[in-house]
Design a protein that fits this description.
The chain is an alpha+beta fold. It has four domains: 158 residues, Reverse transcriptase/Diguanylate cyclase domain (Alpha-Beta Plaits, 2-Layer Sandwich), CATH 3.30.70; 56 residues, DNA polymerase, domain 1 (Orthogonal Bundle), CATH 1.10.150; 142 residues, Dna Ligase, domain 1 (2-Layer Sandwich); 93 residues, no CATH class. The protein contains 15 helices and 22 strands. The strands form five sheets. Strands 1, 10, 11, 12, 13 and 14 form a six-stranded antiparallel β-sheet that branches. The chain has a six-stranded antiparallel beta barrel with strand order 17-18-19-20-21-22. A five-stranded mixed β-sheet has the order 6-7-2-8-9. Strand 21 and strand 22 form a beta hairpin. It is elongated, with a radius of gyration of 27 Å. The two termini are 53 Å apart.
Length: 525
């Protein structure tokens, strides 16, 4: 199989349809309802009324409820989201045969042919919005969908999100001027954005002014692509490889699956085989076509895009969305009359691993990519939440500075690690965190228990500690360092005093006092 490399850095007119707060719209709620959708205890969508009271995406459920006591909290239903979006997809497919779905609530299409047929890009955008409103409706106060048209998907998506009316068209060749005021955070590269902000580069316009060679030398080729994107020169971030012969994997489902879960079981094996086939050629899929066919020859074909590439987990997730939307009838559409008998996966675009060179900071290496493919495969085999990784984040306590997150997900409460965080432990950090904490007894020279007042005053100098049935004498100690977080919230308030103890056997411990009880929080090596 021959693969011809080609940089697709040419301007292409793209229309993006954005349906805000789709998890809420799919459940039938509108802007005026005090409602939030949560997944695994974290807010993933909130109505405009809830956002005005401080409920934001990324908050823990308890914190969101503390900000709005009358908040209605509903668990996320991915199948409902996909099913409700299916009639919108069907309507758009009648306007343009070439469209791509990023996720339920967001899709894009090329404007060249449809714009000529329907009388221009603005007319096409208005027609797409009207088709979406036919199924979304305004009776329940649902947020208005909007369209953005620009040179490339990145600019078109930003145009759709900031459109004051139904359609915002960025004239050809004016991407750079349109992108200038946007924050560097919109590029979807949090590490790069954090570094640029520390250097005083806050907007895409400022980033575009930097010399291209300097950006490439310091941050790598991925940052160079982002630099081109910020300057309006490129329509895509990734360096793509044009496939002269498609990568295709097909499986027959026997017996035909009447439910989505039955077809997913066969789809997982198919996804693993497709990713392995791509790995042999050092490629990763960025655009995937999924075709479903029933015993009665009914078909459903959709194109899915993921700029960062798809592993087994991402492919299975998009297969789940398409199955849920089709088998549920798409919120009023036609349901298949027979079970799923065939699943076909076809790679339409792929990124070549060998052409993405590692950057000096935060760049990806071949080892990183092999690890990612392995984690994707494990996640597809064992389940979406079975494989977890530790994510570093900002915080004062050790527990707050790391979070275990399912592979492929983002941290539930993203926090800037680089912020000052007054009260945070200084370096070096302990090597072993005790989870759960180990109870401890601390006594002074007279054998009396040591207590700490609210002002951080000790009842006596620590002399001995008891761990279980073993008593150790202290060779040295330091502290206390008091911590009083969220003092304004009686339910979320957290107070503790921390100490460092060095025992006579040479071991060092990080200990704390909470509500009059002593605990070993971590161990130093």
């Amino acid at each position: 199989m021959k693969v011809k490399s080609e940089l697709l850095f040419r301007d292409r007119r793209v229309l993006v349809l954005w349906c805000p707060d789709w998890p809420l719209v799919a459940l039938g709620f509108g802007d005026d309802d005090l409602v939030a959708v949560v997944e695994k205890g974290v807010v993933v969508a909130a109505s405009r009324a809830a956002r005005s009271l401080g409920v934001a995406v990324g908050l823990r459920r308890r914190e969101a409820e503390s900000r709005c006591e009358s908040l209605l909290v509903i668990a996320r239903d991915a199948s409902q989201e996909a099913g409700s979006f299916e009639p919108v997809v069907e309507a758009v497919s009648r306007l343009s045969p070439t469209f791509e779905i990023t996720r339920p609530g967001l899709l894009s299409l090329m404007t060249r042919g449809p714009a000529r047929y329907f009388g221009g890009e603005e007319a096409l955008g208005s027609l797409v919005v009207e088709e979406a409103l036919r199924f979304i409706g305004k009776g329940g106060g649902a947020p208005m969908p909007s369209c953005g048209v620009a040179d490339g998907r990145f600019s078109a998506t930003l145009a759709a999100r900031c459109a004051s009316s139904q359609v915002l068209v960025v004239p050809p060749g004016e991407n750079a001027d349109f992108l200038k005021p946007f924050s560097v955070s919109v590029m979807g590269r949090p590490d790069l954005a954090a570094t640029l902000k520390r250097l005083g580069v806050y907007t895409l316009g400022d980033f575009a002014k930097l010399p291209r060679d300097s950006v490439t030398a310091r941050f790598g080729s991925d940052a160079a692509d982002c630099h081109a994107l910020a300057g309006g020169e490129a329509s895509e971030v990734l360096q793509l490889a044009r496939l002269t012969e498609p990568f295709v994997c097909t499986t027959q489902v026997d017996p035909p699956a009447e439910a989505a879960e039955g077809a997913l079981f066969a789809g997982k094996t198919l996804a693993i085989g497709l990713v392995e086939l791509l790995s042999e050629k050092a490629l990763q899929c960025t655009r995937l076509s999924i075709t479903l066919e029933t015993e009665h020859a009914e078909t459903s074909k959709r194109s899915w895009r993921a700029e960062e590439g798809m592993g087994e987990g991402e492919i299975v997730e998009r297969l789940r969305w398409q199955l849920s939307g089709w088998l549920s009838g798409g919120g009023g559409g036609e349901r298949p009359t027979a079970g799923i008998a065939m699943i076909r996966l076809e790679v339409e675009e792929a990124v070549r691993f060998g052409e993405v060179q590692p950057g000096l900071w935060g760049g990806s290496s071949e080892v990183d990519r092999r690890a990612k493919r392995g984690l994707d495969r494990l996640s597809a085999l064992l389940g979406q939440d079975a494989v977890t990784i530790l994510v570093q984040r900002g915080g004062r306590s050790l527990a707050d500075r790391t979070e275990r997150v399912p592979w492929g997900k983002t941290a539930s409460r993203p926090r800037e690690v680089s912020l000052p965080w007054p009260g945070q432990l200084p370096a070096p950090a302990p090597t072993t965190i005790c989870n759960p904490k180990i109870p401890l007894a601390v006594t002074d020279q007279r054998g009396s228990g040591v207590t700490v007042s609210g002002r951080g005053e000790l009842s006596g100098s620590p002399a001995e500690v008891s761990l279980g049935n073993v008593i150790y004498r202290l060779a040295g100690w330091s502290g206390p360092w008091t911590l009083d977080e969220k003092w304004w919230d009686s339910r979320a308030r957290h107070r503790q005093a921390r100490f460092q103890f060095l025992t006579d056997d040479g071991c060092a411990y990080l200990c704390c006092v909470e509500e009059g009880r002593w605990w070993v929080e971590a161990v130093y090596d």
